[in-house]
Amino acid sequence: MRIVVPAGGIGGARFLRGLQAALGVGAEPTGTDPAITVIGNTGDDITLFGLRICPDLDTVMYTLGGGINEEQGWGRAAESFTVKEELAAYGMQPTWFGLGDRDTATHIVRAQMMAAGYPLSAVTAALCDRWRPGVRLLPMTDDRVETHVVVDDEPGGRRAIHFQEWWIRYRAALPAREITGIGAEDAAPAPGVLEAIDEADAVLLPPSNPVVSIGSVLAVPGIREALERTTVVGVSPIIGDAPVRGMADACLKAIGVETSAQAVAEHYGPALLDGWLVDKADEHTHVDGVAVRSLPLYMSDPEATAAIARAALDLAAQLKGQPS
Ligand code: GDP
Ligand code: CA
User: Where are the transmembrane segments (predicted)?
Assistant: First the structure.
């Protein structure tokens, strides 16, 4: 069984843990070919203090590798912030990014390898040698793509800020006029991405942010087209017209999509989506050309999350063979 999962950070990583449980896979000995390939969003990546930071790749790596701060959902467990405090004491900007000491070591390794000329995909593989996430973790692209958000600026003007600044510093409270992936148009899928999709038995879209996580992956030329050729089942990140946690509604609003399970499925569209899982609260959902099933979609514990993954796998198996 080969499953491909385009994923963001927290929502993606939690779902992946459930998928591993559903498939009975996890940390595997070196040399084995993992059943799950993750295509990680890199649109959130940012360079700070000379370090390249890849929040979504790291969240997946730490979560599946057992190093995540479970309560927070991002960053390392047992983290301290001495480096951050020292940088602030030098007056270094920005101060709004939560850079932990343990986490910083990851970014130093990455910065050093990238300065030596290694592509992000090779760096990610090297970092995963330590964490053994039990999945093949590929960045969506080795090229630099950065999501920027266009916000209002005084007087009557507009400016683009990095997605992280909008999300973390402003908590997505500044109305977003536009969300754009700078560099996306010229990016190429990372080595192995298109092959993994073409060889997959199914592609599952986890409940990641549909705009800035899954949307960024889909914006890399070639990836959406490859997904349209295969069986894709998505898990709605919206339950009862609300994002379960986080601020996904602010992103949807920026691109003119209503915050509902139905609108997100219509936004992905029937060419991409074959199946769509919605919560019981949204069982009325109907999307032309997409098979909709309803079940409890809260990833409240590992068992509940595994049940969602199992339902996605079952629906994909059912739909496979039908024209996609
Ligand atoms: P990322 O997009 O994977 O980086 O992770 P985020 O945590 O930023 O976004 C995940 C999205 O999934 C959120 O915007 C929520 O709308 C949604 N979400 C979070 N928790 C759950 C859950 O338990 N069940 C479902 N169905 N969706 C969730
Ligand atoms: Ca399809």
Answer: none
